[in-house]
Amino acid sequence: xxxxxxxxxxxxRLDANTIVVQDLVKRYRGAELNAVDGIxxxxxxxxxxxxxxxxxxxxxxxxxxxxxxLAPTSGVALVGGHDxxxxxxxxxxxxxxxxxxxxxxxxxxxxxxxxxxxxxxxxFPYRPFFPLMPLAYRERVRELSxxxxxxxxxxxxxxxxxxxxxxxxxxxxxxxxxxxxxxLDEPTSGLDTASRRALWDYLREVRAETxxxxxxxxxxxxxxxxxxxxxxxxxxxxxxxxxxAHVKQDLTHEYLVVDAADRDALRRELLAxxxxxxxxxxxxxPLDGVGAHTLLKAIDTPLTTxxxxxxxxxxxxxxxxxxx
Amino acid sequence: MIAAGExxxxxxxxxxxxxxxxxxxxxxxxxxxxxxxxxxxxxGTLSASFGRAPGFDFLTLTFTGVYAQxxxxxxxxxxxxxxxxxxxxxxxxxFIAPVSRYTIIAGRILGETLVALPxxxxxxxFGLVIGIHISPGQLVALIGTGLIVAxxxxxxxxxxxxxxxxxxAANQVFPFIFLPQFFLAGVFTPIQVMPWYLEIPSRIxxxxxxxxxxRGVFYAGQPDYEHVVLQSPAANLAIIVPGFxxxxxxxxxxxxxxxxxx
Lengths: 324, 262
Prior knowledge:
- The complex is a heterodimer of chains A (324) and B (262).
- Chain A is an alpha/beta fold and 324 residues long.
- In chain A, 36% of the residues lie in helices and 24% in strands.
- Chain A has helices at residues 7-13, 59-66, 88-94, 110-120, 135-147, 163-175, 193-210, 221-224, 244-251, 263-272, 292-298, 313-323, and strands at residues 17-26, 36-44, 48-52, 74-79, 82-83, 95-98, 181-185, 213-217, 229-234, 237-242, 255-260, 278-279, 283-286, 303-309.
- Chain B has helices at residues 2-23, 25-50, 58-78, 80-87, 91-95, 101-129, 136-161, 167-184, 196-204, 206-218, 225-228, 233-260.
- Chain A binds chain B through residues 28-29, 67-71, 89-90, 92-93, 95, 97, 99, 101-108, 112, 115-117, 119-122, 125-126, 128, 157, and chain B through 4-5, 7-9, 11-13, 15-16, 19-20, 23-24, 88-90, 92-99, 259-262.
């Protein structure tokens, strides 16, 4: 049963946000713990929002709820202004999704899969064959399939497709109805490096062109580096949220790595100047707002190694999970 | 406008099932051969043994019985594809579409009816070959009533499937539900006279009304009518139509609920 008492608050938050999630809970039948445990977050219009977390954190459960394929246990969620509980059909018209597991009919051709989708979404009338479909449909299929490089495979059975081609086909299909919000549940899993890059190049184009909001879950943290905001889930709870830069800043620090032929001299000098450091065995000096150049100018001991280290999102992510 | 969109969706979903059948040659052959064995072997044997001794032709009785049973069962069992779609992760693509859940189920029932249609035509052709007299009027009646029975079977299949979680369970439960109905519905043998302990389950069996409905129309105006038909086609229709509605509404509700409430 969905809670309704906090819906006015959710409505207020909707103004600037495409997605509003408030106190969302999901407990699967027979489970002892909540898969999603009272999470709240917002996603702004046109934003690339990444939901991160280890396996079983609740990412796919959250996406399934937000795309109406799974009923929540409690909580409120609005997508594109449509309430999941009272207007699931409105939500479905607003969103496109690329599922974690390919959701294609392997017995049909690629074009037949796309055509079924287009008709179910009310984009085009039913016609039994591709040549009988309206010109606009045929052109859109050609346009999308050409961009993703599968135009020659569109009339082949999907069962002959590789994992990467299936992913591309799902992308073609999900973009047919020009969704306002595109949910991508680990969209690049199983893709080779070149396909991943091509997919992201295209998604960037789509975002720039349509201003579509993209809600992403991924295991590849380099993909989340480009996100406007990230949210890290662990055991169904939010453990960190913000821009990638903020999350990194909160949890990790840039530092300077130096070394010298005369380590004893360097150690003595650092202690004498009161510079905090640790030896690993190189000397790591947290920058904490101090410029690397200023620090280096202050050290007289001849150095053999100098480099600055900027932690990645992955470092922050590992730290968040370790802490939680 | 909305209704037109839903109709287009029903047609697109139905075409999907038909396309899959036409591309699966092994399935196409086996589904057509199975009824031939029933009519040819069982009906032929009974006809040869009894001839017209009971007051009607056994071969024609078996022909109409198998015709009804094939359409009803084929569509009902075809609905297992809903569970197969769930297991293949395709159902999430269907259930995320902004169409009514009833539209999705209706599309699948129409699709499985279209899948059953080649079987129906093959059975009629086989009936003609083995000497069953079918007038043009009876031919039209067979196809018309066959479609109604197929829809009824599909709705019954949805109701059964709504309470089954996987294909394995469906494959175990469906034969258990259908095999007794072959006898309780009088597919191969007349059931005018039955002991009370069989009469009760017979009256519960939906296939009984499907078989009797087709026979009622097929035998209309013929002397065998009284020996073969249990009640008028109108009386059967008065059970089939509400039965169809009840099955589809309850079945869709529970199927969708099991899909979303995991």
